[in-house]
Write a structure and sequence with these properties.
It is built from 20 helices and 18 strands. The protein has 729 residues and is an alpha+beta fold. Helix 9 packs antiparallel against helix 10 and helix 9 crosses helix 11. The chain is elongated, with a radius of gyration of 42 Å.
Length: 729
């Protein structure tokens, strides 16, 4: 059958049907006659061709079939164009605040592939059009007029009648405005990716230089380096360098603040007890000892600056030392002057008292009527004052803090704040109304109003408090985050080579290295369960000695159930890990689909989902919703539990770089091995079990972008007034 003739006849049939509908509204006789004449001629014409077999018996169906076919051809073109224009949109976004180098490289590869295959894809899309579907018009290639007529007559709402139709047809033929727009967009994405990769490399080098300067106390030069950086990349440690810089500045600020407190203490008005000048020298000696103690601290600080020659810290430290030493002389002079004034005043009071005594003895008879009442009144006044002092001394507050039903007995942390001032249980407090709050570095917020009554031990009762569940970074740069349902803080990545090396070196631990190359940020492997447990004990002791961990806080391996909570498995049936092994199906660290999406974890090369042949740096792939990395792939990780309730085997979770089977990559999958077994697919991570408030909660750092960090180099210590963190960790 001739396709052109079929279309023309179908168009005539559709036109006739449309005219039949229109003719119902004709009022002019000539119009009606002309329409009837057209109908008769058309019927004769169609009858002739239908008899010859040139027109299908259902022309209306043919029209709709043609429209459906063309919509199916044009819609993929529109979808393809949208996909190309959406590619790399986040790269071209002017705000660009959450990119990583891996994302940029992936986008660049996608844009290169799209650009290279564009012509081939256009040929594929153009192949959907049949001969005579397209025609050349004044505006370029478009659908044939008869096909457009089909749509106008039979389906006025068809997307083929939208203005962008012609541009889509032209795009499939490799021409037109959409073709130019797509080509321009892909070239812009490729250029932007190349620029961002260069920028990433430049910023990484700048940050490394700034970090080196910051750790060697050249914080001004380090700050100048990072000042002009745009923190667009989430995988670069902008925040860590800033924290190191701020730590050095804070250490100088703490020293100056301590001097300010000493100066204010000396400057505070002080009166010796009435007519008791002998009480002044002990007070003066006490204050002079504090001044001398600070001077000794200052001298020690100045001596420590020799370790940081030619650094910003040394330069600013020397300047601060000179300033404080000069001001210290002023404080000493002020102390001597104030004590001399107090002594003079007390001597004058004593002289007056003695003179009155002499007069009383010599003229007792004459003065008795006057002195006796005066003496009685004076005695009453003194008695009232003494009673008031005793009652004032008894005016105190007592309380008990409890967290999770356990009393906080550590006096350093069982502290409340009344109108912002720290108070311990049993402390004397002036009567009045107070706003009771807690130290936000130790506890979650609590505020209430309390009234302290004069002359009483005011029992505030038991205050139920909750420990502050903020993130924590220890002295090795290991970071820990809270996980719902887990009492301990979870390490955000496995213990790295740089973390484990110090332990192995200090304890002479035998540690066989793997046959493949590892960088400091890679997870430590060839570590047995016994090795991991010893590392946790060593780390706990190290942090306690550094003053960064409380006596009852400890690092340990996570339990099997804690691991399940970290991967959001919910409640698992079974009393032991063996009974829970693989029971929850179709749940993986990345979701429910199989195979895993690309770049979601470090798995076996058989899956071809990542670029690593062996282990990868911790944090190379996206974190889960709790901010934890590598809970799927990279290395199997030890848990503290036995596998089946016996002590012969311990549990491993999380799969490794050598895992490719669906059942081993399940979030519920377990592996087991003997406690002494070492292999290059096994590592571990720690959790921090903080059982009550301790110094660990007052030295916490916020987690910013989740990147591995290294601790700052040590600086000269300032002898503490209580605890002065110096240098930054």
């Amino acid at each position: 059958m001739n396709l052109d003739l079929t279309r023309k006849l179908a168009l005539l049939q559709a036109t006739a049907a449309s005219l039949r509908e229109t003719s119902r509204s004709f009022t002019d006789t000539a119009d009606m006659f002309a329409h009837r004449q057209f109908q008769m001629e058309l019927a004769e014409y169609l009858g002739t061709h239908r008899a010859a077999g040139d027109i299908p018996h259902e022309p209306d169906a043919f029209v709709h079939e043609e429209i459906d076919r063309l919509e199916r051809v044009v819609q993929p073109v529109a979808k393809f164009v949208q996909e190309q224009l959406a590619l790399g949109r986040e790269i071209l976004d002017a705000k660009k605040q959450s990119l990583s180098r891996a994302q940029v490289a992936e986008c660049q590869a996608a844009a290169d592939a799209a650009f290279a295959s564009l012509v081939e894809e256009q040929h594929r899309l153009a192949a959907g059009f049949l001969n005579k579907d397209l025609s050349e018009g004044e505006g370029g290639v478009d659908l044939a007029p008869d096909l457009l007529a089909f749509c106008k007559l039979a389906r006025a709402q068809s997307p083929l009648l939208k203005p962008e139709r012609a541009a889509l047809c032209q795009f499939a033929n490799g021409e037109g405005p959409l073709h130019g727009e797509v080509v321009e967009h892909l070239e812009a994405v490729r250029a932007a990716c190349a620029t961002l990769i260069e920028l990433h490399a430049a910023q990484a080098a700048t940050l490394q230089q700034a970090h080196t300067l910051a750790e060697t106390a050249d914080f001004a030069r380090a700050a100048a380096l990072i000042e002009g950086l745009n923190p667009v990349f989430t995988d670069l440690p902008y925040q860590h360098v800033t924290e190191v810089i701020d730590g050095w500045r804070k250490s100088l600020g703490e020293l100056e603040a301590r001097f300010t407190r000493l100066r204010e203490q000396v400057a505070t008005a002080w009166r010796a007890p009435f007519a008791q000048p002998w009480k002044v020298p002990p007070r003066q000696m006490e204050l002079e000892q504090q001044v001398q103690q600070f001077q000794d601290y200052l001298a020690k600080f100045h001596g420590g600056l020799e370790s940081w020659k030619n650094s910003d810290f040394a330069r600013d430290g020397h300047s601060l030392f000179k300033k404080l030493m000069a001001q210290l002389d002023t404080v000493r002079a002020d102390l001597v002057r104030r004590c001399a004034e107090a002594r003079t005043r007390a001597l004058a009071e004593l002289a007056v008292t003695l003179a009155l005594g002499v007069l009383t003895v010599n003229f007792a008879g004459q003065l008795a009527p006057v002195l006796v009442p005066v003496a009685v009144v004076a005695a009453l006044v003194q008695g009232v004052r003494a009673a008031h002092r005793r009652l004032g001394a008894r005016t105190s507050v007592v309380f008990r803090l409890e967290a999770d039903g356990r009393a906080l007995g550590d006096a350093a942390h069982a502290v409340i704040r009344l109108n912002g001032e720290p108070v311990r249980s049993g402390d004397a407090v002036a009567p009045g109304s107070y706003q009771l709050t807690l130290d936000p570095s130790l506890f979650e917020p609590l505020a209430r109003t309390v009234t302290v009554q004069f002359g009483r031990r005011n029992n505030l009762g038991v205050l139920a408090v909750r420990l502050n569940r903020e993130a924590h970074t220890n002295t090795l740069g290991m970071r820990f985050l809270p996980v719902p349902g887990v009492a301990a803080l979870f390490g955000i990545w496995p213990v790295r080579v740089q973390d484990y090396e110090g332990f192995a070196r200090e304890t002479d631990q035998k540690w066989p290295r793997p046959k493949f190359k590892q960088e400091p940020a890679h997870p430590a492997v060839n570590v047995s369960w016994d090795d991991a447990r010893r590392f946790c004990l060593w780390l706990t002791d190290r942090e306690r000695r550094a003053g960064a961990l409380g006596e009852r806080d400890e690092y340990r391996l996570p339990t099997d159930l804690e691991w399940s909570a970290a991967v959001d498995l919910g409640k698992e049936a079974g009393a032991t890990p063996a009974e829970r092994d693989g029971k929850i199906r179709d749940v993986y660290p990345w979701g429910r689909e199989w195979p895993p999406p690309k770049n979601t974890g470090n798995y076996d090369e058989e899956l071809r989902r990542d670029v690593f042949d062996y282990t990868s740096p911790a944090g190379s792939f996206p974190a889960n919703r709790h901010g934890l990395y590598d809970l799927g792939g990279n290395v199997w990780e030890w848990c503290s539990d036995s596998y089946d309730g016996q002590q012969n085997y311990r549990v491993l979770r999380g799969a490794s770089w050598h895992s490719a089977k669906p059942h081993t990559l399940l979030s519920a999958a377990r592996l087991f091995n003997s406690p002494g077994h070492r292999v290059d697919i096994v590592g571990f991570r720690c959790v921090l079990d903080a059982r009550r408030p301790s110094p660990v909660f007052s030295q916490r750092e916020k987690v910013g972008n989740g990147q591995p960090t290294t601790p700052a180099a040590p600086a000269p210590a300032i002898p503490p007034e209580e605890t002065t963190p110096f240098p930054p960790a």
